[in-house]
């Protein structure tokens, strides 16, 4: 949660992608704060400036490019010993000009998968997660027939799904692990990532482990996660998001944002509450509950990473 007694320096920064999906990074000059580390280009918002103008000015000053289109990606508050920053990160989707280090700083395009091995200022780690995560996430429905399930999954991967939470509460542990192995190899063939929903055994090939909101309250540090594997969690309110932050999740799902077909009369957050809750955490959050493909725009406008869905993704393609 942000510390209201702290004055955060508002900094805009950009995740700039080329047509192949590579991301442009610059190396901070040695004499500056966090010198020598890689950064997302950007800088301080001047007084009276709106963030998008600050971003446009910084990208011209630092890289000689003209910003044409950008959308919010994530906001992070971080307290260094010397200063506190609010990193207001935007995803640049269109620009003109050829990026070069106008202030003499080295600039390089990296694939998203190269980012975790680079050295960044410590505030940046959630930005790397956000840059690697897609806008849409599929949470699978309960598998009935495994062969049919894999075939259905392949259709969604072909349609562009790049993040899958393999959720199968009805399967025995051995069956879950066997099907998970197949889900992972199928998804990896498409360059998609697979998060396993709290199996008793964590597979080395999986990209992450997902916790239900109940599992969030288990003993800290006992989750069977390996180095490099993400930890995600289902949350429904501020208390669960805070707990997710305390145990160090990489990203979360917040629900229900809208009414769902399975619980049509149940209370839901609505987009404004979603935005207010997301504003206070420093990791990417997917909107879940009642999401259709069109809601990706709403999720991004309200500070989310994107949308997660079971039914609408499984049945709409
Ligand atoms: N641009 C940028 N700044 C970051 C990142 N991560 C991070 O902690 N910061 C911190 O945000 C602060 C402001 O960034 P900056 O030094 O780029 O500001 P600026 O371009 O206006 O530079 P200037 O002070 O030379 O005018 C610095 O303390 C920097 O360490 C990042 O990824 N990109
Ligand atoms: Mg700068």
What does this structure look like?
The structure is a single chain. The chain has two domains: 121 residues, Nucleoside Triphosphate Pyrophosphohydrolase; 180 residues, TIM Barrel, CATH 3.20.20. It is globular, with a radius of gyration of 20 Å. By secondary structure, it is an alpha/beta fold. It has an eight-stranded parallel β-barrel, surrounded by four helices. 37% of the residues are buried. Helix content is 26%, strand content 26%. Helix 3 runs parallel beside helix 4. Magnesium ion binds next to strand 4. GO terms for molecular function: hydrolase activity. Its cofactor is Mg(2+). Keywords: DNA damage, DNA repair, DNA replication, Hydrolase, Magnesium, Metal-binding, Mutator protein. InterPro entries: Aldolase_TIM, Mutator_MutT, MutT-like, MutY_C, Nudix_hydrolase, NUDIX_hydrolase-like_dom_sf, NUDIX_hydrolase_CS, NUDIX_hydrolase_dom.
Short description, anyone?
The protein has helices at 51-63, 125-132, 146-158, 173-189, 238-246, 270-279, 295-301, 311-315; strands at 9-16, 23-27, 38-39, 42-44, 66-79, 84-96, 107-110, 136-139, 163-166, 193-197, 208-211, 230-235, 251-254, 285-288, 306-309.
Feature tags:
TIM Barrel, binds 8-OXO-guanosine-5'-triphosphate, Nucleoside Triphosphate Pyrophosphohydrolase, 317 residues, binds magnesium ion, 2 domains, DNA replication, 8-oxo-dGTP diphosphatase, four-stranded mixed sheet, eight-stranded parallel barrel, 8 helices, alpha/beta, Mutator_MutT
């Amino acid at each position: 949660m942000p510390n209201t007694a702290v004055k955060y320096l508002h900094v805009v920064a950009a995740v700039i992608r080329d047509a192949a999906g590579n991301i442009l990074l610059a190396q901070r000059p040695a004499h500056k704060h966090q010198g020598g580390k890689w950064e997302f280009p950007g800088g301080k918002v001047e007084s009276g400036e709106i963030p998008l103008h600050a971003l446009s000015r910084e990208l011209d000053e630092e890289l000689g490019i003209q910003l044409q289109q950008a959308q919010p990606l994530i906001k992070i508050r971080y307290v260094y010993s010397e200063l506190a920053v609010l990193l207001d990160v935007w995803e640049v989707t269109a620009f003109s000009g050829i990026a070069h280090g106008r202030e003499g700083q080295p600039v390089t395009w990296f694939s998203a998968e190269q980012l975790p091995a680079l050295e960044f200022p410590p505030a940046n780690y959630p930005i790397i997660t956000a840059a690697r995560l897609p806008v849409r996430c599929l949470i699978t429905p309960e598998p009935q027939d495994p062969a049919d399930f894999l075939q259905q999954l392949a259709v969604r991967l072909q349609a562009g799904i790049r993040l899958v939470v393999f959720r199968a509460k009805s399967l025995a542990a051995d069956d879950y692990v066997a099907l998970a192995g197949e889900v992972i190899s199928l998804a990896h063939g498409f360059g998609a990532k697979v998060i396993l929903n709290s199996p008793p055994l964590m597979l080395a090939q999986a990209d992450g482990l997902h916790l239900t909101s109940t599992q969030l309250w288990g003993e800290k540090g006992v989750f069977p996660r390996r180095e490099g594997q993400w930890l995600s969690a289902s949350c429904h309110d501020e208390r669960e998001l805070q707990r997710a932050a305390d145990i160090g999740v990489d990203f979360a799902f917040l629900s229900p944002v809208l009414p769902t077909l399975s619980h049509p009369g149940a209370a839901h957050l609505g987009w404004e509450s979603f935005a207010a809750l997301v504003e206070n955490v420093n990791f990417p959050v997917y909107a879940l509950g009642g999401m259709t493909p069109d809601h990706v725009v709403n999720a991004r406008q309200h500070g989310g990473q994107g949308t997660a869905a079971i039914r609408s993704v499984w049945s709409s393609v």
